[in-house]
Amino acid sequence: MSWHEQMVTVPIGDGRITLEGVWQSGSLRGAVIAPPHPEYGGSMDSPVCNELAYGLYKSGIASLRFNWKGVGASQGVRSGDLEAAEEDYAAALEHTAQSAELPLIAAGYSFGSVVALRCAMGDPRVRDVLMVAPPVAMLEALPLDQFGRPLHVIVGGQDTLAPVDKLSALISPLPNANLDVIPKADHFFASGGLAELPQLVQSAINA
User: Fold this and answer.
1) This prediction's pTM
2) In 3D, which of 164, 156, 160, 134 has the Cα closest to residue 147?
3) Distance CA 185, CA 192 (A)
4) Three-class DSSP category at 187
5) How far is Cα 153 from Cα 151, in angstroms, rounded to an integer?
6) Longest dimension (CA), the chain
C-alpha cells in the first residue's frame, strides 16, 4: 500500500464540533498520533508527528493525526487544559476504532504523548502506547505501574524537558516498557534526530 494521506474530520460527541485530521491507510491495526501543546504552536503538521506516522506506515499500521480544538481547521476554542485535550484524543480514538483493526496504538509527541497515555489508561482498545519526548513533570503524577501494557518511549539525549536519567528512573521499573535514546536530539528535534524516528518506531512496534 502506497503512502497516501487523506484529510478527514473527526466529530466530538454529538458532532457539533469537529477536528481536522489526516488519515493514512494501513494494512493492519490503527494508531492515533497527538501533536504537541496547542498553546505553543503544536499541530498535526509537526515534523515529529509526520515521522511517527511514516514509521507506523512502514509497519503496516494506519494512523490518524489531528489538530486540537482551535488549531488549524479544527473547530472550538484552543486550550492547554488536559481534560479538553483528552476529549479531543478520545474522539480521535473512536474515529480510528471505526476505521481500522483493533487493538489500537496510542501515540503522541511531547504534551500529546502524555494525553495519549492518559486516554490509553482508561481505554481497553489500546494495547500499545508510543511516546516521543514526554515531559517528565507530566508523567510523575501518573500511576505508571498500573498501566501494564507495552509502553514505548523515544527521547533525545539533549532533551531538558524529558531528561534521560529522570525518564529512565520512571520507565525502567515497568516490566513492559522500553526506552530508546537519540543522543544528539533535543526536545524539539532542532539539532537532529528526525531521521532516526521512523526506524525506532518500527523497532518498538514490531518488538
Assistant:
1) 0.97
2) 134
3) 5
4) coil
5) 7
6) 45
Q: At what angle do helices 111-121 and 82-97 cross, to 10 degrees?
A: 70
Cell digits for 17? 464540533
Q: CA-CA distance, 165 to 74, in Å (whole number)?
A: 37
3-state secondary structure of 122: coil
Contact 93, 32 (CB under 8 A): yes
Cell of 192: 537532529
pLDDT tens, N- to C-terminus, the chain (207 residues) = 678 899 999 999 888 999 999 999 998 899 999 999 999 999 999 999 999 999 999 999 999 999 999 999 999 999 999 999 999 999 999 999 999 999 999 999 999 999 999 999 999 999 999 999 999 999 998 999 999 999 999 999 999 999 999 999 999 999 999 999 999 999 999 989 999 999 999 999 887
User: Omega before 103 cis (within 30°)?
Assistant: yes
